[in-house]
Amino acid sequence: MAIAIPIALFPYSTIHVNKKKLCVSNALFDIFKTLTTIGVIMSISDQIRTLIPKAMCRDRYLLLRALRSSQKPGQRPGKDRLKDLLSKARASADIRQKRADNLPQNIRFDPDLPISAGKEKIIKAIQDHPVVIISGETGSGKTTQIPKFCLEAGRGISGMIGCTQPRRIAAM
């Protein structure tokens, strides 16, 4: 014999799943909320949002712009579009992770080059500023040592390290 107990006797909460209203016990609701908070249950948009900071620099803006355009009021993005965006975000984050995992170990700096005397100061400047301009005498080791300083400063994982040669630009 089944016993029917009115739901009003138990504390409950209302959640919306696939546009359907469900009444669940507060205990079940708390479990759902916890799983959502720790990321076990996460919408595709939320997954993309958490991957953007882990993506390559070149992809972050485009991913964020595409995500924002899909969330405009009155506009429902197709699930395929969001899934495609999610796969792009994952691919970009995977590339960045592989680059972080494959950083060269034991980078060697040539102590005989004059630029090596300012190594710590240059690395600190690279970490503290988005753009650093370094000038020095010809043969001081700028072209060979500065990219190593950038790697030591944590650069080159989510983007490229660029080294320009102004004297060549001036010779044009």
Please, could you describe this protein's structure?
This protein has a two-stranded antiparallel ribbon with strand order 1-2. The protein has 172 residues and is mostly helical. It is built from 7 helices and 2 strands.
Number of strands: 2
Proportion of residues in extended strands: 5-15%
Which residues sit in consecutive blocks of at least 5 with pLDDT less than 50?
1-10
| Helix-strand pattern | EEHHHHHHH
C-alpha-based Rg, rounded: 26 Å
* Main sheet record: 2 strands, antiparallel
Give the oligomer, counting copies of the same chain as homo and different chains as hetero. single chain
Mean pLDDT: 79
| CA-CA gap between termini | 94 Å
SSE class = mainly alpha
Secondary structure tally, helices:
7
Neighbour order of strands in the largest sheet: 1-2
Shape: elongated
Helix content: 40-55%
Task: Give the helices and strands, then pairings.
Layout: E1 12-17, E2 20-25, H1 26-37, H2 44-51, H3 57-70, H4 79-101, H5 119-128, H6 142-152, H7 166-170
Antiparallel strand pairs: 1-2
